[in-house]
Structure formats: C-alpha cells, structure tokens
Design brief:
Length: 302
C-alpha cells in the first residue's frame, strides 16, 4: 500500500523501513545482507527507506549504495529518504571539533552531494533536516532547498524533530512535505503539542520514528507503563478473531490517527517486516484506540 504524503507527493509505502541499525550501529549486514532486505521488503510492499548521513558513523549510506550497485534496477522501484544537519565528532569526520548542528547552505549542499555519491543515485526522493538548530536561518535554508530542487538532486523536502512553530517558520519560506518525529504509545507529546494537528492543517503526513518505543515495551523487565500497554493490547487481541501480534496492534494504533502517520520500523528480521506490512490492514475502533491511550497515560481521559 502506498500513500502520498502531501498534496504534491511524494508517494511512499505506508510503512517506511528505517536503516539506522543496518550497519555498524547494529546488525552489520554488509551490502549483500542489505540487498536481501531491500528485495524482500519490496516483495511486501515496503519500498521507502529512511537514512541519515550520520548513520553508522557516516558509513551506512555507502554500504546501502553498494547494495544497490549489485542490482541497479532496484532504484527505480524504491524511494530514498535521508537527513542532514547533525555534525558528529567521530573518526570519519576528524575536522568536527564538537557535536553540533549545521543548517548552513554550504553544509546542506555538501551533505546532499555526499549522500548522492554514497547511495549511488542521481536524486534523493526526500531530504529532511535532522534537527532544528538554534542558529538556523530560514531564508538561507530555503535558498539551499530551491537550488537542490532545481538541480534535480532532491525532489522533496521536510524536517525531523521540529516543533510546530519551527516547522511554520521554515514552511513559510519553502513548502515542506513532512515532519518526522518520535511518536508511540510511550511518547505521546506529538498528539497533544500541536505537531499532528499541524500536519492535518497542512494536509501533510508525518513520519514516526521509534513507533514501538525503541523496543522498551518488549524488554525483559518492562516498567509499569509498558506492562499496562501490553496487558491492554492482549485484552484487545483476545476479543478479535484475527491472529495478530502486539507489535502489529501498536503500529495499527499509530496508523489509526487521522494525520496518516507513516511508522518508520527498524527491524532486520524479515518476519517482523512482514508483520509490519500486514499491520496496515488492521482496523481499530475509537474505543480500542482510547483503551491503549488510557493504558499509556495511566488514567482515563478527562
């Protein structure tokens, strides 16, 4: 299943595959292992891949690019998202003296050029500013976006982790198509701080990173909040005739929201990926949604 995340695109798969832990930060798949996951995820209709230049200490994009090089025809059937703006102090960037944010036009353009080389592609479907900087200049950022779009290097632009007011500032200079934020039953602020309301207002679909709370809900010793969520999810599932997993139900909870949230899942296990793809078809009632909300907050709504 695909969906347009704004009035003028792009068209993304309903579930987005996050690659943050594909490389040295996690599973260390290598190009062959990445190629297998790309092909298998496409078989399940998950064709959008979420990157950032910093992933794997600036190495994961290049490994993914090597995977695409093994089968270049795949690029025509997938969508690539990447982020820039965070400067990490790591061995791969010895000239970075301190971890910081850089949203200058020079840094944005240089980051895109590196990402294009690393991913071995001619264009990026969606570029996100990874974090808002206290020093960001909306006019200069808009100029960089316009330059990259006219050059055909980036087709669409958005942000990540921006407050509604920060989003408004940049969107007043250049049209943005999404805000990728942390959202899950363990992280509810976007539902109440105006972030998701704004997405509905502008008819753009948000993306949710850590949609299962970073796995905290499924830890060996879940805290009281996670235990409430698990127990409620089990109760809801028991009432249904469908054979569904708790992780699927929690993804369906996010996708039930009228803003049209696109969960960014980070698994490297193909069975979990298939489960995520199947979660798109789970219908949830309003009362079921509020049962899980109450389990998360620990109290009924006012």
């Amino acid at each position: 299943m695909t969906t347009s995340i704004s009035e003028h695109g792009p068209e993304f798969s309903r579930i987005v595959f996050g690659v943050m832990k594909w490389g040295v930060w996690g599973h260390q798949l290598g190009p062959q292992g990445m190629l297998r996951l790309i092909e298998e995820s496409a078989d399940y209709g998950i064709t959008t891949f979420d990157h950032a230049d910093i992933y794997g200490n600036y190495t994961t994009e290049a490994e993914f690019g090597e995977a695409l090089k093994l089968k270049p025809g795949l690029r025509d059937n997938i969508q690539l998202v990447t982020k820039c703006g965070i400067k990490m102090k790591v061995a791969q960037r010895p000239h970075h003296r301190i971890k910081s944010y850089d949203t200058s036009p020079e840094h944005i353009r240089a980051s895109v050029d590196r990402s294009l080389r690393n991913l071995q592609t001619d264009y990026i479907d969606l570029l996100l500013l990874h974090r808002p900087s206290p020093l960001m200049d909306a006019d200069l950022i808009a100029g960089a976006f316009e330059h990259l779009q006219k050059a055909g290097k980036v087709r669409h632009f958005g942000v990540s982790n921006f407050t509604p007011r920060q989003f408004d500032l940049l969107n007043s200079r250049f049209p943005l198509v999404t805000n990728q934020v942390e959202a899950s039953l363990l992280h509810l602020p976007p539902f109440t701080d105006g972030t998701l309301d704004q997405c509905q207002e502008y008819r753009i679909k948000p993306m949710a990173w850590s949609p299962l709370g970073g796995g905290t809900i499924f830890s060996e010793q879940p805290d009281a909040r996670a235990q409430r969520i698990l127990a409620t999810a089990e109760t809801i599932i028991a009432r249904r005739e469908q054979n569904i997993g708790i992780d699927q139900l929690l993804l369906a909870w996010l996708m039930r929201h009228p803003s049209g949230i696109l969960p960014v899942v980070g698994t490297a296990r193909i069975e979990r990926l298939k489960a995520a793809a199947d979660a798109v078809h789970i219908m949830m009632s309003q009362e079921e949604w509020f049962e899980l909300w109450e389990a998360s907050t620990g109290t009924e709504v006012a």
